[in-house]
Amino acid sequence: MPPAPRPGSAPGQRTRAGAGTALGLGFATLYMSIIVLLPLSAIVWKAHQAGWSGFWADVTTPEAWSTMKLTILLSIAVALTNIVMGTLIAWVLVRDSFPGKRVMDVLIDLPFALPTIVAGLVLLTLYGPTSPIHVTLAYTRPGVFVALLFVTLPFCVRTVQPVLIELDRDMEEAAASLGASRITIFRRIVLPNLMPAILAGGALSFARALSEYGSTVLISGNIPFKTQVASVHIFNQIENDNVTGAAAVATVLLGVSLIVLLAIGVIQRWSVRR
Amino acid sequence: MAIDVSHIDKRFGDFVALDDVTVEIADGSLTALLGPSGGGKSTLLRVIAGLEQPDSGTVTINGNDATKLPPQRRNVGFVFQHYAAFKHMSVFRNVAFGLEIRKRPKREIKQRVQELLELVHLEAFADRLPSQLSGGQRQRMALARALAVQPNVLLLDEPFGALDAQVRKELRVWLRRLHDEVHVTTVFVTHDQEEAMDVADEIVVMAGGRIEQIGSPDELYERPANDFVMSFLGPVTRLNGRLVRPHDLELLASAAPGAVEASVVRVVRLGFEVRVELLVNGSDVWVQVTRDSSERLELHSGSTVYVRASETAIRPAVPSIATPAASG
Amino acid sequence: MVGAAVTTKTKWALRLVALLYLALLLIVPVGLIFWRTFQHGFSPFWHSITTHEALHALRVTLEVAITATVLNTVFGITASLLIVRHAFPGKRLLNALIDLPLAVSPVVAGLALILIYGRLTPIGGWLGHQGVNVIFALPGMVIATVFVSLPLVVRELVPVLEEIGTEQEQAAWTLGASAPQTFRRITLPAIRWALAYGIVLALARSLGEFGAVAVVSGKVVGQTQTLTLYVEQQYQNFDKTGAYAVSVMLAMIAIVTLIAMTLFRPKER
């Protein structure tokens, strides 16, 4: 016998609030269309206005090509750094205790709340031309990398932390009682359980780094072939009235973002099944 | 009739929740909808309340066709298994909710809520939040809330299902007394046959979306319509392929007309009664006897006895050779 | 004993690495900008954030952010109720599309809006004839801000609506409450903390939006310049004091946001 549907499940209500549902659905559809769907379709349409070859020509100009390569490589580096540092910070926040931990826990979210242009400026005070510690990262690739690390800091911490809190300590104690060393316990017991969260955090960091603009605009100095990331490149193309070129690179960014979004969905479903 | 349900069908996708269900519920009665989970009893209750729309069929409440009425306009009281307490409101405001919606004067609301809280013995808890009450208290609050609007009928969906055994027994005695005081037509869903037999005037047995039998607790117990009802309402065993209650079997020391030979597998003493497990023609049968007769027959494992159904044994009206589950 | 010693050492090492990373990336830079801003006292800061231009930028920022947040709140409530409480064709699609803005670069969002609502496009041209300018004007900035903060309210409401279930609402129906009454008296109070959390997130994101607004606003000083655009302009005009002062003001807003987030955080209710 199939399980009885949960009382109050959606099928029972479809007939009930017909008019209200239709009104709400109409509003939501219109809203999404005006704000998200129509504009994003316009980008894809614009990029292909001159046909496939036009699109290809636009994304393979030396400047566009180098900016995309740089952006993707930087994003991968950012995701990997976050996977290590984010997991480490989450571990310290959950398993360690020291004065000031609570404040640190709250501060982790600051990059989410801080406007990106301010984030860039904040980093320039320490790593800019007037650096009090004489480390000048302004207008260099490491500078852009640090800016991206700043804005993506919370992702891995905040995906790994709740899983680590929920993780059953009994498993680790059982493994220890079976003679496993601490490294073995971490590698064989803890890490596999954290993996979906770590990967999801890494994917989120990657997507964010790929699309970041505000924090990099001041620190990168906008030097083509050296520090110019994709969003900055698109912005310049718009200002130079090369909208088609901007749309072409934007389409590539959109495509990669969609793939990452799908990957995150797959990771989430995988972790739910486990 | 207070409630008249006629030829109701309801599907959820491929799952048939109600299959041509017809039932009448008498004015002022206390009726149990009894059956295994997934049998359609909760869905039927929700159809009566208007929380589910039937695919076909009609629901009449106090002589008015309510089939197309939304739940707001049926004037039914509904009590949920998990209380559905309005968590952000005090006990008083929970009970007052329906009256406030009906825009009754403040003084009347206050007086009525006070009366109801006394009725459910929660007058001391009026200012508490539901989270500060025990499960049994929350359920009594939910009952007072449903009664506040003076409903035509009171519907309770597994009202004691989430409570522990002791509270459950107390509350069902209390519900019976409350009904005798208030006299509102009441229908409650349960999967516990003891609860249904204890509280209800009338029991509707449901399984697989169909009604198996309707009757008083005595009628159902003594004249079960089929194997399913018989096995759902009390202990059964099977002798020569027919269902019989274990206490309706006689054990004899020597062969007699109608009796078959059996060997004793195990004798289990459960206080006053004794459970005797037998092997009859290669199949398991169990018999419930008193301690006296067990001692008189000198039963022990390995001994041989003769077993037959007593003359007054209860049999289902429609015997079947199928297993009970398949009859639903 | 040996094992315990190693554990303590590892623990200290991990703690040190984590704190060092956070200090160099987050705490020291943020502290430094506060110090730089206030090293000569409070009055230069006050002077910088009360110039005519800065105050105008503040007003534009508030107008855009509040309008966008109101819109996203109405949409967020509608969409989350649709997703959780109703069945309709295309539900999974709506659910997936709502997350899309989080993965789109703000610059790309701005470009997308220019391509639809710009003066030379059919829709933008028609709107211009009606006297409504979208791009290089407030409506475009509002739409851009709505775009980047669109998922935030919905994503907070959906899990809470799922968790509270439908029983309380159904109980209210059987007690005679209409759908609007049920929403106002039962559903809204039950989701109020999650809603507050979502609104705080959306407002913070809206106040701080830079890229998308930079593209669609045209950065017209004294007209479409928001606080974040003002910060960029002052920095590039070598007015570091002005840029730092407004940055610090925005950072203070961010810190207030953080405190509000801590108060409203789902797990601590």
Structure commentary:
The complex is a heterotrimer of chains A (274), B (328) and C (269). With 274 residues, chain A is mostly helical. Chain A is 78% helix and 0% strand. Chain A has a domain at 69-228: MetI-like (MetI-like fold, Orthogonal Bundle), CATH 1.10.3720. Chain A has helices at residues 10-14, 18-47, 51-59, 62-95, 101-107, 110-113, 116-127, 141-166, 169-177, 182-211, 214-219, 230-239, 243-273. Chain A is globular, with a radius of gyration of 23 Å. In chain B, α2 (91-101) packs across α3. The longest helix of chain B has 18 residues, at 165-182. Chain B is an alpha+beta fold. Chain B has helices at residues 41-49, 91-101, 106-119, 135-148, 165-182, 193-199, 217-222, 227-233, 291-296; strands at residues 3-12, 15-25, 30-34, 56-61, 64-65, 76-79, 153-157, 185-190, 202-207, 210-215, 237-239, 242-244, 249-252, 260-270, 273-280, 283-290, 304-309. Chains in contact: A-B, A-C, B-C.
What is the global morphology of chain B? Answer: elongated
The chain-level mean pLDDT of chain A equals: 87
How many β-strands of chain B, per DSSP? Answer: 17
Strand content of chain A: under 5%
Most extensive interface between two protein chains, with residue counts: A-C, 86 and 92 residues
What would you give as the CATH superfamily of one domain in chain A? MetI-like
Alpha-carbon distance between the termini of chain A? 26 Å
Q: What is Rg of chain B?
A: 24 Å
Brief summary:
The complex is a heterotrimer of chains A (274), B (328) and C (269). Chain B has 328 residues and is α+β, with helices and mostly antiparallel strands.
